[in-house]
Amino acid sequence: MSSRVDAVSEHELHAYVDGELDTRRRLEVDAWLACNPQAAERVRDYRAIQDRLHARFDSLLVEPAALPTRPRRRKPLMLARAAGLAALVLVSGVLGWHLKDRAGDDSRLPEVAELAQPAAFAHQVYATDTRYPVEIPAVEQASLNRWVSQRMHTELRAPDLAGQSLNFIGGRLLPSTNRMAAQFMYEDGQGDRLTVYVRRIADYAGVDNFHYREQDGLHMFYWIDRSMGYAVVGEQPAVQLIAVANAVQIAMQAGENDQ
Q1: pTM for this one?
Q2: Phi, then psi, of 237 in degrees rounded to 5
Q3: Of 10, 37, 171, 257, which residue is 20 to 30 A from 140 by alpha carbon distance?
Q4: Are 14 and 67 contained in the same domain?
Q5: Taking Cα atoms as reference points, which of 87, 245, 76 lies closest to residue 161?
Q6: Phi first, then psi: what are they for 202, rounded to 5°?
Q7: Residue 106 pLDDT class (50, 70, 90 cuts)
Q8: What total number of domains does the chain contain?
């Protein structure tokens, strides 16, 4: 086997899954995978995630024949389609972000240092707490929404994720570097917890696509919408979390529209 075949990179594996290799190189990678069962298993995993993301979001990219005329229904629909597009752009990037984060030191990036890392740490601390996982329970959700909104100087509501089969437990206010942050906690049918972390990002303007990160056994999708940063954190599979992230993005934007 040639040295070129021996040197199949992770980047080439993603290109192989995406059908971006020329015929000669694809055949070389085929031969290499036949001799490397662990890499072949990763390729199968990549394809499984790709298939699930397409199944979940392809329909969002189809322009409906007639859009509703009500203005408040149109923007969430556009957001859903945009989020779906972002997800499909990340079909090969989902694991690519994971590999990039592990291969390089990105801890100095503001969105990682101020959003992703504290979101993961807060999840580790409170999602495993059996006695006091939240400070304000779900039955006092209105009080929780008012409290975090007042302290963070922006209107916030715990997103309704019942459509994702997630039960709202409650939330809390947290210190986060030089800002306050809100953490909303949910539980799925298996009792596994998922958190939504929200905070303001200093000196950042614009809209960012979803980014994926894996840290200490946790999976996370995070993004920035204008000056607010959001992170969805849990041990659930990435294909499940991206659907939750999409629902959170729509819910948060809808909350802004209702103000």
Answers
A1: 0.62
A2: -60, 150
A3: 257
A4: yes
A5: 245
A6: -70, 140
A7: low
A8: 2
Same domain, 82 and 112: no
Both 115 and 76 in one domain: the answer is no
In DSSP terms, which residues pair with 52 in a beta bridge?
none
Beta bridge partners of 182: 173, 198
- Domain boundary residue, one of 89, 122, 155: 89
- 70 and 109 in a single domain? The answer is no
Q: Which domain holds residue 228?
A: 97-257
Instruction: Please tell me the predicted confidence (pLDDT) of residue 17.
Output: 82
Q: Is 185 within 8 Å of 200 (Cβ atoms)?
A: no
